[in-house]
Amino acid sequence: MSIPTSTDVLIVGGGPAGALLGCLLARRGIEVLVVEKQQHLDRDFRGETLAAPSVVTLRKLGFGPALEQHGYLETRAVTMRMEGRQVLHVDYGRFGLDVLPIDIPQPALIGIFNEQSAGLPGYTYASGTGFTGLIEEDGVVRGAVLKRKDGERVTVRARLVVGADGRFSRVRKAAGITARITPMERDFLSFKLPRPAGWGNNAELVVEQGKHLVVLPTFPDFLRIGHNLPKRGLGELRKEGFDAFRAGIAAIDPRLEPLLTEHLRSWDDTGFLEIFTAEVDDWARDGLILIGDASHTCTPILGQGVNLAIQDTVCLAPVIARSLARGGAGSALPAAEFAEFVATRRKHKARVTRFQRLQEAALAMHTPLQTLLRRARFRTLDHLPLKYVVFGKVINAPHPVDAADLRTAGQESQAPLAA
Ligand SMILES: Cc1cc2nc3c(=O)[nH]c(=O)nc-3n(C[C@H](O)[C@H](O)[C@H](O)COP(=O)(O)OP(=O)(O)OC[C@H]3O[C@@H](n4cnc5c(N)ncnc54)[C@H](O)[C@@H]3O)c2cc1C
Predict the structure, then answer these.
(1) Do 333 and 194 share a structural domain?
(2) Which of 53-57, 93-97, 126-130, 153-157 has the lowest mean pLDDT?
(3) Which end of the chain lies in a sparser environment, N or C, as judged by fewer CB atoms within 10 Å?
(4) For the residues of 264-317, what is the DSSP string, one character each?
(5) What is the band of 411 on the pLDDT scale with cuts at 50, 70, 90?
(6) More reliable by pLDDT, 366 or 174
(7) CA distances (Å), 270 to each of 44, 103, 105, 245, in order?
(8) Is the pLDDT reported for residue 213 higher than 50?
């Protein structure tokens, strides 16, 4: 398939942020090209959790029927157990949103966005097409150079290049935007196991001294397990052997032992995630903006990555539409047009990161005194209604987007309109 050599908006990266943005812009009748370096969407160990406000927003945008048709799993609560005792329980039904967070595999979610975009006038999706560099003129970004799977290089001019290319963003680097990378004390190894009947729908954090697991029921019938390792501890873990790894997991959560023996066969069944936060001061340059993980990378605590990517996208789409409509044909969108978007989103993401760092630090505690104090702290929080305020600010922050913009974008799912 050939790709256009000029477009209004070039989106680099077809993850949750890029795929949704492509759809929302095309619905507004904006010419958009989404390029994704992977040939296929298969990706097993990624964020699969959609927080309740994202579910509400996606329904308003008209994605509800497709989500229902695919199916998902509702998460009822998050529970924390430390050294065998429950210390915290947060009931997601108590947030008054009338909607629960859901788990849906990331390829399915992206597939829904892509299916709804396909066929919209002005929309092009190019898989197997990687970003290699920016086109700049007098300090203004005018497009990008792409490399197709067969090695062909294509130059695409655009009024806006969106870097939605994830935590190691090449667009960010090419734009000379520096990220402050803060490594967390742990990394993460994930795997999936079949979910036994009657397991329940609570997300669980199971902590044993300095080790912990997140155990997440997920769609259709799996448990997603994340195991935290000491930073750069993967080599050491592998040296000890796979049986020792499985035994270590079972020691943290003995309920998993029979599942591990039967279903977790080799390191190939696991996925590694390096945990760090990346913060960026300037998300925009003239002709360029970053969103999702490229603009701000979180840790997996409370599964906020996809939620934040969706928030960025629904807030940004109307800003781009208005800016394109205001500017002259062919002119690059000035960074100043994105200042308010960046300030609002950066503030929320910074809050999420602060909260996650506190939790990461608590989870890294391991001496007997530290773990005793940690349990006491979470048990105290558990008895306070304040816990719903604390968690709500992170997981249930309403999407700061104009209701009329959402309504318009939702209606446009039926009939595309001009910007
Ligand atoms: C291995 C892994 C495991 C994760 N696990 C969890 C988890 O358990 N819980 C959680 O909440 N979050 C997790 N996350 C984070 C979560 O998946 C992200 O926060 C979320 O997907 C962000 O969406 P995004 O669209 O901004 O970026 P991404 O989902 O990273 O999408 C970026 C896309 O850009 C493409 N791309 C990259 N470079 C180029 C290029 N040069 N040219 C063209 N395309 C390019 C990539 O192939 C990818 O499809 C994980 C992320 C990774 C990478």
Answers:
(1) no
(2) 93-97
(3) N
(4) --SGGG-EEE--EEEEES--EETTEEE-GGGTEE--STTS-HHHHHHHHHHHHH
(5) low
(6) 174
(7) 9, 19, 16, 11
(8) yes
| C-alpha torsion sign, points 306, 127, 409, 143 | positive
Q: How many residues does the chain have?
A: 419
Range of the domain at 111: 6-75+100-181+277-361
Rounded Cα distance between 187 and 209, Å, is 16
Burial of 45 (0-12, 13-18, 19+ CB in 10 A): middle
Q: Which atom of ligand 1 is nearest to the CA of 292?
A: 26
Per the structure block, which two tokens stand in for 34?
Answer: 């989404």
SS3 content of the chain, % helix, strand, coil (to 5): 40, 30, 30
262-276 confidence digits (pLDDT tens): 999 999 999 999 999
Ligand 1 neighbour 273 (Cβ under 6 A)? yes
Structural domain ending residue among the three candidates 245, 273, 301: 273
Q: Into how many domains does the chain fold? A: 2
For the full predicted model, state whether its pTM sits above 0.70: yes
Q: Ligand 1 centre from 106 Cα, in Å?
A: 10
On whether residue 401 sits in a domain, the answer given is no
Q: 31 with 7: CB under 8 angstroms? A: yes
Q: How far is CA 110 from its chain centroid?
A: 11
Contact 17 CB / ligand 1 (< 6 Å): yes
Q: What is the DSSP letter of 334?
A: P
Q: Which pair of structure tokens corresponds to residue 46?
A: 């990624």
Judge if the beta carbon of residue 47 lies within 6 A of ligand 1. Answer: yes
Boundary of a domain, candidates 332, 361, 390: 361
Distance 271 CA to ligand 1 centre (A): 13
| Structural domain includes residue 395 | no
Structure tokens at 387: 């816990």
Residue 388 domain flag:
no
Note every long-range contact of 345-350, with CB atoms under 8 Å and residues 24 or more positions apart, other chains counting.
345/283, 345/295, 345/296, 345/311, 345/312, 345/315, 345/400, 346/283, 346/296, 348/308, 348/311, 348/397, 348/400, 349/295, 349/296, 349/298, 349/308, 350/279, 350/296
399 to 11, 68, 305, 309, 393: CA distances (angstroms): 22, 22, 14, 11, 12
Tell me the two tokens of residue 48. 């699969």
d(CA 23, CA 252): 43
| Tokens of residue 115, six digits | 């299916």
Question: Which residue's CA is the closest to the ligand 1 atom numbered 35?
Answer: 13
